[in-house]
Amino acid sequence: GLMLACLLAITWTFAAKADEPRLLRLGTGSLAGTYYPVGVALCRLINEDRRDHGVRCAAIPTDGSVENIDELRSGDIDIAMVQSDLQRAVLDGRPPFADAGPFEDLRALLSLHAEPLTIVTTRGSGISGLADLQGKRLSVGEFGSGQRATWDRLSDTFGWHADDFAELLELSPADEPEALCDGNIDAFVLTIGHPAPPVREAATACEAVLVPGADPEIASGIAASPVYLDATIPAGLYPGIEDATPTYAVTATLVARSDLPDELAELVLSAAFDRLDDLRGLHPALADLAPEGMQSAGLSAPLHPAVQRRADTAERVGQ
Fold this sequence. Notes:
It is built from 13 helices and ten strands. It has about 325 residues and is of the alpha/beta class. The model is unreliable at about 10-15 (pLDDT under 50).
């Protein structure tokens, strides 16, 4: 009798589970950034077919890449948006992940939009290139954000230390435009997809300008690295900013753990690749997505098995 009761209990548990919508939790970034609306766009495509597959995708606001990696490791989220330079750093167990060590189970799903290094200042600041940042008051992003981690990498490249600056503040992208326009900082430094709300806000409120991030001193370091790309912030995206801005970029990537079930990974892949036109139309940062880049740009982690299977199938069909 006990045996039967146990069997019934087990069967009942599975039946109850099957009826509940499965939740796919996507870690994004700050509400003022680009990751969050891009994550919402991706989830929207997945959720449109929820009746068929019974999965609900939820885009969760976070502090960004570093927090996303921590939550992915601990199992609090299922997929995460992560800057390509941090995808590389966590594989190698380098800062800001040195304490936790390499993340062996990290798997790449796909690559999304470029995130150019974006330096926002006011017209009278005297900042016209990266070297001019020294001695100034800057906001370089909150601890735990990809913005901040990229700043730390940039500082290492130049051999900069905190005392090379008048002040380094850790404001969120939501607070940086006001701080700049009020004269409390001289510039803020972001890695973000464009058009970006903080840049638009600063350009509108106090005629802010963009500083070129391209610099001969870091060009060789960039060229040697698989995670950085040459990039341009296009002209005409922001009021009063008429010229294109040469800089370099990391890439927004989607990652998961190796144990993400294939069918969940496949939902993400089919939303991105099979409905690419729809995805491009959901957010301006996604407007130029191309399948080739989505399969490779900035992906240094091993591919999730579902990605590999999709690539193999495409190859077979192509032959």
